[in-house]
């Protein structure tokens, strides 16, 4: 996991983040029960969630989940299918013409592996997705990852490292990396 981001749990910054998460959870809950054709109400809620209007040509099919919203930067003509999750506190940038399949997950923060630090710190890093990328169904993009332009992330892939431009990445096998 990237460590570009470090926050002490129960700090003023953490409390502020937690308050924002509660507000955004309420907004996404309202968004996700609106009639599909109520574009005006959806646009208003997305404006509150993201802190600005959606860029031109962005399509997002609910249900849609984010924990913060203000750090989710969607470029023009991005397509987000149903059931995607964006945990964006450390920042997520998605380039033009990127397509995101159902149930993809983007996570920018987490906890350290070491038990003593796990309840004390949040760690992580921003996610940067290039232009014209395709993220497959159920893919998970972890903190600090950059995905280059024109790349494809296969369905179910768990992306822990940067992805070069114009490449295909696959795989989700968990392996033991360390024991304690």
TrEMBL record:
<comment type="similarity">
    <text>Belongs to the transferase hexapeptide repeat family.</text>
</comment>
<protein>
    <submittedName>
        <fullName>Acetyltransferase (Isoleucine patch superfamily)</fullName>
    </submittedName>
</protein>
<dbReference type="Pfam" id="PF00132">
    <property type="entry name" value="Hexapep"/>
</dbReference>
<dbReference type="InterPro" id="IPR051159">
    <property type="entry name" value="Hexapeptide_acetyltransf"/>
</dbReference>
<keyword id="KW-0677">Repeat</keyword>
<keyword id="KW-0808">Transferase</keyword>
<dbReference type="InterPro" id="IPR001451">
    <property type="entry name" value="Hexapep"/>
</dbReference>
<dbReference type="InterPro" id="IPR018357">
    <property type="entry name" value="Hexapep_transf_CS"/>
</dbReference>
<dbReference type="GO" id="GO:0005829">
    <property type="term" value="C:cytosol"/>
</dbReference>
<dbReference type="GO" id="GO:0008374">
    <property type="term" value="F:O-acyltransferase activity"/>
</dbReference>
<dbReference type="InterPro" id="IPR011004">
    <property type="entry name" value="Trimer_LpxA-like_sf"/>
</dbReference>
<keyword id="KW-0012">Acyltransferase</keyword>
């Amino acid at each position: 996991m990237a460590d570009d981001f470090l926050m002490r749990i129960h700090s003023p910054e953490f409390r502020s983040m937690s308050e924002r998460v509660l507000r955004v959870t309420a907004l996404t809950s309202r968004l996700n029960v609106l009639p599909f054709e109520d574009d005006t109400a959806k646009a208003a809620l997305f404006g509150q969630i993201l802190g600005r209007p959606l860029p031109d040509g962005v399509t997002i099919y609910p249900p849609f989940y984010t924990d913060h919203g203000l750090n989710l930067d969607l470029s023009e003509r991005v397509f987000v299918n149903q059931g995607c999750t964006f945990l964006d506190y450390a920042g997520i940038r998605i380039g033009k013409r990127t397509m995101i399949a159902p149930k993809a997950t983007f996570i920018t923060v987490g906890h350290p592996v070491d038990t003593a630090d796990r309840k004390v710190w949040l760690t992580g890093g921003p996610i940067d997705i290039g232009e014209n990328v395709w993220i497959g169904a159920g893919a998970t993009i972890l903190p600090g990852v950059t995905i280059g332009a024109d790349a494809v992330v296969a369905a179910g892939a768990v992306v822990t490292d940067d992805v070069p431009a114009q490449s295909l990445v696959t795989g989700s096998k968990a392996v033991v990396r360390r024991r304690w």
